[in-house]
Amino acid sequence: MTNEITPIEAMRGTLVKMQPEFQAALPPQIPVEKFIRTTLTAVQMNPDLLGADRRSLLGACMKAAQDGLLLDGREAAPVIFNTKEGKKVQYMPMVGGILKKIRNSGELASISAQVAYDKDHFEYELGDNENIVHKPFLGEDRGKPIAVYAVAKTKDGAIYREVMSVSDVEKVRAASRAGKFGPWVEWWDEMAKKTVIRRMAKRLPSSADVDSVLASDMEASGFVQQARQEPINVTPVPEDQQAPLSRLKASMGQPMADAIDQATGEIIQEETANVPTANT
Asked: How many Å is the Cα radius of gyration of the chain?
């Protein structure tokens, strides 16, 4: 009989040990137990995460907690990137998470985003009376996407509209380091909606919470380098290769950073200690 601990069991134990740090980072409306349960489910659904750099995985969990988003594939998702140092994990806000933060900011009365297909009835009019008319085709096959749009209404009655063609969306996708895999391949519609919302957000009333999530999304998508007019490089800069969580540690404070390092060391020790030897 062996007491070997599986990687998922070790991960569960580490998440539980980090409960105080997660609770300190999470907003009051998200129970820490729910966050840990959802995170563990995300790892179980994608076992490849356990083969990636463990510090980056725990850092992604902590960053999602700080932004108040669940790693459930709807609000946010852990995404694996291949680098020269191996597989790294970064959390990426999804359209549901961005809409959640914008709605919770209290600045808007409503906001929504939709994809229009070639079998839908779709009209977009510019000019003094800007207007969008979209009547979805109710059959099984709506055809190919032709446009994506977002509409937001402020509490004082102002209406913001943003429309992007599929070619516009594909240009953004091509500039993203995650454009050829992961969410862009599995959930094109959701990523397209997020793209048009992110563009429209530049004109919306801002809040610190919304700005933080949008910044996280820009970083995960690889647009930080683009904004500085530098070539997009999927490989971390040297200091990030040596310390993948350096920027995260700076933003969350040393106590939480130390907790990640300690938890990572413990999970690695547990996994190493329970690897069967040739004499077992």
From this structure: 21
CA distance 268 to 146: 48
Does an H or E element contain 90, and which? strand 86-93
Amino acid identity at 12: R
Give the global pTM: 0.69
Give the C-alpha separation, 41 to 44, whole Å. 5
Rama region for 191: left / alpha / beta (φ>0; ψ in -120 to 50; rest):
alpha
Distance between terminal CA atoms of the chain?
10
- Measured over the CA atoms of residue 227, residue 230, residue 236 and residue 237, the dihedral's sign is negative
Q: Tell me the per-residue pLDDT of 40-71, one tens digit each, with 9 for 90 and over.
A: 999 999 989 999 999 999 999 999 999 999 99
Are 135 and 129 in contact, with CB atoms under 8 Å apart?
Answer: no
